[in-house]
Amino acid sequence: MSPTIVLTVAIGGLVATGVYLLTSRHLTRVVLGVLVAGNGVNLLLIAAAGPAGRAPILDPDGEITLDTASTSSDPLPQALVLTAIVITFAVTAFLLAMAYRTSRIEGTKGDDVVRDTSPQGRSRGEAAPPGEAAEPGTAAAVGSPQEKAF
Amino acid sequence: MRVLLPLVVLLPVLGAALTLVLGSHPVAQRWVSVVVLSGVTATAAALLVSAASDGPQSVVLGAWPAGVGISLVVDRLSGLMLLTSSIVTLSVMLYSVGQGSTGDGERTPVSIYHPTFLTLSAGVSIAFLAGDLFNLYVGFEVLLVSSYVLLTLGGTAARVRAGMTYVVVSIVSSLLFLTGIGVVYAATGTVSMADLPGRLSGLPLAVAVGLQLVLLLAFGLKAAAFPLSGWLPDSYPTASAPVAAVFAGLLTKVGVYAIFRTQTVLFGGVSTPEVTTALVVVAVATMLVGILGAIAQNDLKRLLSFTLVSHIGYMLFGVALGSTAALGAAVFYAVHHILVQTALFLVVGLVERAAGTTSLRRLGGLGGAAPGIALLFLLPALNLAGIPPFSGFVGKLALLRAGADDGSTSAWVLIVAGVITSLLTLYAISRAWAATFWSGRATRQDPEVSPEAAAAHAHRVPPAMVAAAAGVVVVVTSLTLVAGPLLALADGAAADTLDVPGYTSTVGGLDIATADGGAENGSAENGAKTP
Fold it and tell me: Where, if anywhere, are coiled coils annotated (chain B) (predicted)?
């Protein structure tokens, strides 16, 4: 199997861009990074299918064959990549919902930077409940339509 | 018995659909969840019995030929993990039902909880039964996406912040896994666990080891092995008690299960000393760094999360050694660990309910107010540390014995690290127990809370929650009574995973027959055999 150089470069570029974005503290960039890296990996699955351009399953004479080596494109990676695309889509939607939720909670601060988790010693278990009550938007959002979407 | 195989996936999925429809009827939702999970537990028990008596079995969904359709396989390892996980999901469901029925739950129950929980259970079942890498990936995704929802349930600031870390780390691990599947397919032309062992051992060694490392990296991230474990203690403690309990019990262990399969079925034929050494280093580091982290904690939930990470190292200990005895001990340890961590997190949920906090600085004197909870915490805590009569001791002893049998330098390093970790676990857990249940409240930061008030507070813990937690504690304690047979079963499970020809012929061979119309005959025969 020899993948085309175009696909290989595209996969490398997408994954590298995605990883770079993922290292950012800005949620928007993290979401974009997940999307870009996810697409890079999906492309890798397509590249694993071998040379492009022939119909899957049907060989040139129109006969149904599972002999993927010579006569037809390999249908399995296409099935796999479809599943993977659907999963990437769903996970991205969830991430966006969480990013939106974060912006609702952090609201007035005006940026989307992920803050450090609380250092140990100030445990979240004890500190969170009073803190949450004071956060703008939290109390209002509980029970709202956005809440149900979660 | 093969007809039962898809049931452990189908039942929770149908249950999830039904509970989703019943969203406005909380009582009906609870009944559906409990009935469905009981059904899954019964089915898993039947599958384990049949796998133990008749050997590994598989079924290809939709009666496709093997290699084309999606195959579900159960051997003793899958069956054992499936039964343990279904006991955990059932108990946690009972616990959360008990928690919700009082009306003053820590948060108002959200109608999405039951469907998501059942989907999580389905995902765990798919992962344990998967007969090919991609189906394993799908199982992982189903359980991970459910866990994203469960972790951020309620959408409070702390949970969304912790959830963001968890979700992004999980997505990265899934992308790594998917990359692994892509390159494995490119190299071998298959993702079926039946065909992979032969084709992988035919590859050049460097390529095979590269594939192995990509998969181990992805699974190590899911299992929270040391350098990849930082996400766990930050995310689990923010979840509600039942969610944290089911996560602690199951999610990392699905990763460990995947590592078992990778190291035995897939790459059993291409093992190299370098990879083994790397596994030994990771196992030692996971045990020691995890438990040192636990000692430094001042919050019960975070402390338990660190012990959870630390004890993953024991399972990697067994995997690194790779002998039947070592793998069997690791399987036993996994079963013990799933139950004991679930029990501890459930009891910490009771502590939180009784005292209103899990911070060791503010807890204290709870032993007088709630002696029952103190006992419920003590039993699994001593079990975790490996005090003799308990199953934790049996598991550790089996691991150490397998290490001594191995006799190599790395085995002795593992043994020393295992013993130190066990001692430090005892220290961490007894310090937590003393701070929670012994020391007087008067010396604490909350002087205005008198013991009487604390006692009155403690009575507000709903009996159903206590009963569910007690149920898990009883199960994990009674593992001691069945330790011998269970260890034998775990050894059998390890033998099953090492018996690659047996496994591949089950996944591949058996179902060639079903492709040409043997499906009905096959299940009829099996039905006649086990009426």
Answer: none
Chain A residues near residue B157 by CB distance under 8 angstroms:
105-106, 128, 131-132, 135, 138
Question: Does A125 contact B182 at a Cβ distance shorter than 8 Å?
Answer: no
Q: Give me Rg for the CA atoms of chain B.
A: 22
Residue of A nearest to B363 (CA): A126
Q: Whole-model pTM?
A: 0.85
B 308-367 residues inside an 8 A Cβ radius of A: 352, 357-359, 362
Please tell me the predicted confidence (pLDDT) of residue B139: 93
**CA–CA separation, A65 and A73 (whole Å):** 10
> Complex ipTM above 0.85?
no
Q: Which domain holds residue A69?
A: 5-53+65-114+137-149
- Within 57-116 of A, beta carbons closer than 8 Å to B belong to 66, 68, 74, 76-77, 80, 83-84, 87, 90-91, 94-95, 98-99, 101-102, 105-106, 114-115
All residue ranges of chain B with pLDDT < 50 are: 101-106, 442-445, 447, 509-531
pLDDT of residue B337: 93
pLDDT of residue B499: 82
- Answer whether residue A59 is part of any domain: no
* DSSP secondary structure letter of residue B70: -
CATH number of the domain enclosing A103: 1.10.287
d(CA A142, CA B160): 13
Question: What is the rounded average pLDDT for all residues in chain A?
Answer: 71
Q: How many CB atoms lie within 10 A of CB B128?
A: 31
Q: Is residue A130 part of a domain?
A: no
